[in-house]
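Trying the structure run again after the queue cleared.
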Amino acid sequence: MTSSEQDDDRPIDPGPAWLGPKASEDEEPVARRFGGGLTLRAVVPNAITAAALCSGLTGIRFAIVGDWKMALFAIVLAGLLDGIDGRIARLLKAQSRFGAELDSLADSLSFGMAPALVLFLWSLQDLPRFGWLIALAFALCCALRLARFNARIDLDDQPHKSAGFLTGVPAPVGAGLAFLPMYLWIATGEEIFRTPWIIALWTAAIAFLMVSNIATMSWKSLRPKSSLRLAMVGFGGLLFAALLIEPWWTLVAICVGYLAFMPLGIMKYARVRQQRAEAAVPDGLPAAPFDVSNGPK
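Done. Tokens:
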């Protein structure tokens, strides 16, 4: 047995360095002792992650043959699977570093490379050279976002996360937003939504949002009142039914709704920062005077 095999079989002390990247940005890590291979219950969430990876890459296969609806369906399905694998891992108490690493790699391929290639084959290839650069930029920004998240996971100072927010647009959401022109093109049949320059500018904008430092709302930051929870359940059921009956317009509505709520997340985080700044000022000390002409003194 080689030394590397011995190291793999030896139990590893739990801690942030052992955990590595998590399966989801809005989940808290749970320290676990893991060694000797995956347990049977850990196979389930990792199998879902693998299914999400295969679904996202299969979207490229459909795009190559020009089946755009199936290409979108495959990548959207990958996003749905990605949204439940981490939750199932927590439910089964089967979090592992292997699963976290697999999830991070799957996200980069399913929501970075796959959407970039689908958009290139659909429209961006009509822009010689520049279209390919935009596709590369989208895939690169997705990878950079995931790398930034993985690098910050061990840091104690994460202002966005501690306040219940995310930094930038998550990779699965970014992929869904990038496809907004395709949803409109399929729903309306208007070729204007396939204009290469429009697709290039839109794709570049979404790529920027993924790597930006903009505070975006996470599921954990949503706290509906108890009187609205039953209505939220009903709305979720109707939304699912709408996806079955009119999927493309429903996806358009989801994208528009998310973009409309982004300013709300920015304003809410601004209030959090202001409250933190006020709490950091010692009692009894006056605030620094402010002169409009010369700025803070």
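The longest strand covers residues 165-167. Worth checking whether this holds up in the mutant runs.
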